[in-house]
Amino acid sequence: MQRALRTIIGVVVVVVVGAVACSTAPTADPPVPGTTTTTTAPSGIALPPRPRDIPVDGVEPCSLLTAEQRAALGLDGNPITSTGSTQIFGSARSCIVRGSDPLEVAVGITLVTTTGVERFTGGELAANLTTITVGGFPAVLARPVGLDSFCSVELDVARGQMIDVQFRDGGRKPPVPLDRLCHGAEQVAGEVMASLLAH
Fold first, then answer.
1. Residue 49 and residue 171: Cα distance in Å, rounded?
2. Per-residue confidence at 62, pLDDT binned at 50, 70, 90?
3. pLDDT given at position 81
4. CA dist 181 to 1, 99, 118, Å?
5. Does the pLDDT at position 196 exceed 60?
6. N or C: which end of the chain has fewer CB atoms below 10 A?
7. Residue 10 belongs to domain spanning
């Protein structure tokens, strides 16, 4: 069981490492409630300023989705907290939770205190990027190039800090379409931001 949990955590949090190296032209998705698309650019995206800083030092990642929020999102698995190191973020704390109805998915919420959202906006990563606003804060919707099994939202919460919200296919056939994964990532990011603002 512990091996299986470590596998889930590794897949959800670390898979983005294999998907990044250089950027390509972005594609835009329809915004979900609570998010606003602001602009797109092929590389070197400039985000609007944050309304204020909300440092995530000391925040428990699994506290950012309440039981009620998880139920509304169809995430019926038990949240798992993990601390690990990735090539992109360095050491970071994550919360992993799975869902099985209506979709078989896995969600990863990673609190990053080693680098800010500029890690994604600098034009070095292999992802189609769209700038959005989540809960009044700037963010990036990142669709990985060459992979269609996950989508992520990168929340700009403080100088040198960010929250990575990844929404990943859970392995059921047929697989969840990438557009639906990106929609799910935006939904989860909206809930995470609402919880963070309420802290």
1. 38
2. very high
3. 96
4. 26, 12, 23
5. yes
6. N
7. 2-198
